Amino acid sequence: MKKIILSFVTIASFTFYALFLRGSQSLSYQSPTNTEEKNSYPTPVVTPPKTRGLYQDGTFVGNSADAYYGYIQVEAVIKNGELADVIFLDYPQDRPTSVRINNLAMPILKREAIKSQNANVATVSGATDSSIAFRESLAAALSKAKI
Q1: Are 117 and 145 in contact (CB under 8 A)?
Q2: Cα 56 to Cα 31: distance, rounded to the nearest angstrom
Q3: Which residues pair with 9 in a beta bridge?
Q4: How far apart are CA 123 and CA 70, in angstroms?
Q5: Single pTM value for the model
Q6: Residues 30-77: pLDDT tens digits?
Q7: Which residues, in sequence order, are bridge partners of residue 65?
């Protein structure tokens, strides 16, 4: 019995939140198209809010950050208020090991930053120094882009 009451309270809470507290969303209904459907209840359609994004559009260059065997510097490309691309301007590439490590780590770091829309990305295994330097440079670039 407690589980049923708890489930009902949880559903009621989410419904209240969705309908009343999320003021930026609009709720509308689709009207039935044929006579058979006219006897059923209308289907709710939720329109998501239009967000502008966290950043101002443009390109923003981060500081050069020490990655032990060289430096990493990135440029953040912001489109429609969101991080759209990360361009590596500099990275350790004078040693074959550095080239191999960074060629594996850079696409992962870039993808995760775009996915998370910030510089707080996980460290790539085997590329700890490059990951830390990437986060530092991207954080500096994104701080310049903040609205």
Answers
A1: no
A2: 40
A3: none
A4: 17
A5: 0.65
A6: 555 555 555 566 666 655 554 568 899 999 999 999 999 999 999 999
A7: 72
DSSP 26: E
CA pair distance 110, 120, nearest whole angstrom: 11
Q: How far is CA 137 from the centre of its chain?
A: 18
Q: Which residues pair with 87 in a beta bridge?
A: 75
Amino acid identity for residue 45 in this structure: V
Is residue 121 within 8 Å of 112, Cβ to Cβ? yes
Identify the residue whose tokens are 């500099």.
90
> Tens digits of per-residue pLDDT, 78-132?
999 999 999 999 999 999 999 999 999 999 999 999 999 999 999 999 999 999 9
